[in-house]
Design brief:
The N and C termini lie far apart (58 Å). The longest helix is centred in the C-terminal third of the chain and has 17 residues. The chain has 105 residues and is an all-alpha fold. The protein has a single domain, classed as DnaJ domain (Helix Hairpins). The chain is globular and about 40 Å long. The relative contact order is 0.10. The chain contains five helices and no strands.
């Protein structure tokens, strides 16, 4: 199981929001690490989940890595088109601004 296959973020994997504090992230990590530790968990994918949880925590605990990760998430989110612009009933939402020419032309 890969993180991309399930369309999850590291935040979702740990069960926190993107606004979570470092303490909330650490607490969530510890809880998930206990839950999915291969010596304790009987799930067939426990080892892989444990590795993903560790990778998520390693990224989110470091402020610089977390900032880069957040920037990548935002970039990915805005590159995906959520609504088909060819739908006539929603076209006006895509072009809410009018171009205003200045008086000099």
């Amino acid at each position: 199981m890969k993180l991309d296959e399930y369309k999850k973020t590291y935040y979702a994997l740990l069960g926190v929001t993107a606004r979570a504090s470092q303490e909330e992230i650490r607490s969530a990590y510890r809880k998930k690490a206990k839950e999915f530790h291969p010596d304790v968990c009987n799930r067939f994918d426990a080892e892989e989940m444990f590795k993903l949880i560790n990778k998520a925590y390693a990224t989110l605990k470091d402020p610089k890595k977390r900032q880069k990760y957040n920037e990548k998430l935002m970039e990915d989110m805005f590159q995906k088109q959520v609504v088909d612009p060819s739908k006539k009933h929603i076209n006006h939402y895509y072009y809410p601004f009018h171009i205003v020419e200045d008086e000099d032309g």
